[in-house]
Write a structure and sequence with these properties.
CATH superfamily of the largest domain: P-loop containing nucleotide triphosphate hydrolases
Radius of gyration: 45 Å
Number of domains: 5
Structural class: alpha/beta
Oligomer: single chain
Strand order of the largest sheet: 1-11-12-13-9-14-15
CATH class of the largest domain: Alpha Beta
CATH topology of the largest domain: Rossmann fold
Shape: extended
Number of helices: 21
Helix content: 40-55%
Number of strands: 20
Distance between the termini: 103 Å
Largest sheet: 7 strands, mixed
């Protein structure tokens, strides 16, 4: 049973990771669900979820891209379907259709490409594919979101009647309009619209002479808006028909809603499925943004993280275009606990957090940014004590809080636990606090727990050196500048460089000497020895890296030269074969020519035939019997070589021609531009006339406009005729 405390997730900044992850969701419900991601309790479920994300990320690299999974939330529609005698509006029905179509497309796709996406196919296989809902809604709703006339016979009849009545209203209104306009009772605007009804714009003085219902008047009072009496009866009839139409539409919507109601569990499944796909897609996109992978799982309780990046630091530095330093770390039975020491600001805490955060991310079903040859394992519990843990609410000092944490660690720590402690033992008297920290560390060690701690205490470094399954590690520093190199080296404790850092920061040497005299001589010597060893390690590390780079360059250069040499060798062989073949043909030609000359002189046919036959026999004795296929291949090869030689000869000839042409051609002198010349800009098409020249500038008239341009930018199109 995997159990990771909320405090550990906060210490490792896991909520920040979830915020970044949720930004990759395309639906509000997916966004909400992403923020609730937590480490999974079941190993089987975790491996399955990691497989889903890994398959989705692979879809970015192949031609079989997973279809879009975006959807409009139907939570409101689901609530209404749970309540009897309610009905869904057209907008809600269209959302259900869109969701059904999206899910059907996804499931059909995953079924078609189940060999590529076996886990995603298994994940979707329980979802039912059906067109019933789509067909039902499409039968009553058109593409504009209106109820179709054919949704029911009554609705069709009502709408036909409505159209007839509207026709009568228009006809009666037009008659009244023409009549009162002829009597000059109407204003210049003649008519207007009030409450979606056409009304006559009657002059106020004639309002009593026009029969009908007064619907209002203008602000000045000069116009009265009247609906003619002839249209009133038709309008009442229209109102009754529209009311009946509205009632029929509601009846159709209720009937459709009742048809959909039994499919409520399916709709809930649809929405949940698309939310899950959105979360998986977000994990894949987030993983791709940091080049994350799914590492191999170790059979034993051991982990090897090679070139591991802190996700938040990596993405932050990526935005700033800055370099992030990866770390390589191993935790196994032979080195269960790593004690990292060294000066502050060297990267100890970041290394600790990197390991912890990557482990939490992995156990929450997320891919992690490590090298593909990394190996991982799972822990039942991850315990952490990182950062300033002073608790104002509980009136606890930093040390009191840390003791409380250690008590919790002692209760929960076992062989399936990973513990992470930053600045172990601080907050109390160095001697006493160090002794207590050493005791705690021994206890964790004997319980066979796995862990990483950072410390400045020498006794913890000595303990790590003495116990067989615990190792020291340090962060490399430049031996001259004491600048951090952000590289973890396992196997040796790190000096805190206390006095060196003080000296670098301008503390007087006399004060540093006085400080050295106040502590035990052996302590200073011990720290100095560690510092010396660390400097030596740093120097060796730099030399090693330089040698590796040089070796890599030399190997690459050797491979490149070898490849060039092989190509040249093959070409030489091909050219040699071509040369030998041509020489043989020349020799044969010479022989035939000699025989022809002899025949020309003596006219002896028998001698001619004998010598020709002898020549052919000699040539055939040199030939090897080969199949037609081999003969064809040789001809093709010979042709290719000839073409290659021909191309190279052509290139050489072309180069020589160009060189010759350049030598002959002299740059043409630029024409002198005068008043009245037709010109254009060097990079333009429009042609204008020079109206004026003044101080190396010309005023060019383009007809619609004129502009002042430098003469150097103009080229002559046509000189003015004299």
């Amino acid at each position: 049973m995997i159990n990771i405390h909320k405090k550990t997730l906060q210490d490792l900044e896991f909520p920040t990771v979830l915020e970044q992850l949720s930004a990759h969701c395309i639906t509000p419900l997916g966004y909400e669900k992403t923020l609730t991601i937590a480490p999974l309790k079941s190993k089987e479920k975790l491996l399955f979820e990691l497989g889903l994300t890994n398959e989705y990320i692979s879809s970015f690299e192949n031609d079989n891209r997973i279809p879009n999974h975006g959807f409009d939330t139907i939570s409101k529609e689901i609530k209404l379907l749970n309540i009897e005698n309610t009905y869904l509006e057209v907008h809600g029905l269209k959302k259900i259709v869109a969701m059904s179509t999206t899910v059907n497309d996804l499931i059909r796709f995953l079924e078609k490409f189940k060999e590529y996406y076996p886990s995603l196919y298994e994940f979707s296989s329980h979802i039912e594919v059906t067109k019933i809902l789509i067909e039902k809604v499409d039968s009553i709703v058109d593409r504009f979101g209106d109820i179709k006339d054919q949704a029911s016979e009554l609705l069709l009849s009502l709408r036909q009647d409505i159209n007839k009545v509207k026709g009568k209203i228009n006809a009666s209104f037009s008659a009244a309009l023409n009549m009162y306009h002829g009597l000059d009772y109407l204003d210049d605007i003649r008519e207007s619209v009030v409450d979606n009804k056409r009304v006559l714009a009657v002059k106020a003085m004639y309002r009593r002479k026009v029969k009908g219902a007064i619907m209002g008047g203008s602000k000045t009072g000069s116009i009265v808006y009247i609906e003619p009496e002839t249209t009133l009866q038709h309008t009442r009839e229209l109102n009754n028909l529209e009311y009946e139409e509205h009632e029929e539409v509601i009846r159709i919507l209720k009937e459709t809603t009742n048809f959909i109601r039994p499919f409520l569990p399916l709709l809930i499944n649809y929405q949940d499925f698309l939310i899950d796909i959105d979360v998986i897609s977000a994990k894949a996109k987030y993983g791709r943004s940091m080049h994350a992978i799914l590492p191999k799982f170790s059979e034993e309780k051991s982990m090897y993280l090679r070139e591991a990046y802190h996700p938040l630091l990596y993405l932050n530095n990526l935005e700033k275009n800055e370099k992030t330093f990866p770390q390589t770390i191993t935790l196994e039975q032979g080195s269960r606990i790593i004690v990292i020491s060294g000066p502050n600001a060297g990267g100890k805490s970041i290394t600790l957090k990197t390991i912890g955060l990557l482990q939490v991310m992995l156990q929450s079903g997320m891919l992690i940014p490590v090298h593909e040859r990394s190996k991982v394992c799972l822990f039942d519990r991850i315990l952490s004590d990182i950062g300033d843990n002073q608790s104002i609410e509980n009136h606890l000092s930093t040390y009191s809080y840390r003791l409380k944490q250690m008590n919790y660690f002692l209760k929960k720590c076992n062989k399936n636990t990973l513990f992470l402690i930053d600045e172990f033992g601080t907050g109390s008297d160095p001697e006493l606090g160090g002794a207590l920290a050493e005791t705690f560390l021994e206890e964790f060690y004997h319980r066979e727990a796995f862990g990483i701690i950072t410390t400045h205490y020498s006794n913890l470094k000595i303990l790590a050196n003495e116990l067989p399954h615990m190792v020291n590690a340090n962060m490399l520093f430049d031996e001259r500048t004491l600048e951090p190199l952000f590289k973890l080296v396992v196997g040796q404790a790190g000096s805190s460089f206390t006095f060196e850092v003080a000296q670098k920061n301008g503390i007087p040497y006399s004060l540093i000497n006085r400080a050295k005299k106040k502590i035990e001589r052996s302590k200073v010597r011990f720290d100095a020895t560690i510092a010396k060893l660390q400097k030596e390690r740093s120097r060796l590390e730099k030399t090693g890296q330089s040698l590796k780079q040089n070796e890599k360059k030399k190997i690459e250069e050797t491979d490149r030269l070898e490849e060039i040499n092989n190509k040249i060798q093959k070409k030489l062989e091909s050219y040699q074969e071509l040369y030998d073949s041509n020489q043989r043909l020349i020799y044969l030609g010479q022989k035939v020519n000699e025989i022809a000359e002899k025949y020309f002189e003596n006219k002896q046919k028998r001698q001619l035939m004998g010598e020709l036959f002898k020549l052919v026999q000699i040539e055939n004795s040199k030939r090897k019997k080969i199949s037609a296929k081999q003969k064809k291949a040789e001809k093709v090869k010979e042709k290719q070589v000839q073409q290659e030689v021909k191309k190279k000869v052509e290139v050489i000839r072309k180069k020589k021609k160009e060189e010759k042409k350049k030598a002959i051609e002299a740059p043409k002198p630029k024409a002198i531009i005068k008043l009245g010349d037709r010109v254009r800009m060097e990079d333009g098409r429009a042609i204008g006339t020079v109206d004026k020249i003044e101080k190396n500038k010309a005023v060019v008239n383009y007809g619609m406009f004129t502009t002042s341009v430098s003469i150097d930018q103009l080229e002559l199109v046509e000189a003015i005729k004299k």
